[in-house]
Amino acid sequence: MAVLSNLEPKAVFEYFEKLCAVPHGSGNTKIISDLCVSFAKELGLKWRQDELNNVVIWKDGTPGYEDADPVILQGHMDMVCAKTEDCPKDMAREGLDLATDGEYVWAKETSLGGDNCIAVAMALAILADKTMPHPPLEAVFTVDEEVGMEGAFGLDCSDLKGRQLLNLDSEEEGIFTVSCAGGVRMDCMLPGAQRSLTGETGYAVTISGLQGGHSGAEIDKGRASANVLAGRTLYSAMERVPGLRLADIRGGKFDNVICPYSESRIAVPAGREAVFEAFIKEFDGILKNEYAGRDEGVSLVCEKTALETALSPEDTGRLLRTLLILPQGVQAMNVDFPGLVQTSLNLGVMRMEEDGVHLTVSIRSCIASQKAELCQRVRAIIETGGGTAEARSDYPGWQYQRDSLLRRRLMEVYRDHTGKDAVIEATHGGLECGLFIEKLPGLDAVSLGPELRDIHSPRERLGVASTERVYRLVCEFLKRSR
Question: Whole-prediction pTM value?
Answer without folding.
Answer: 0.74
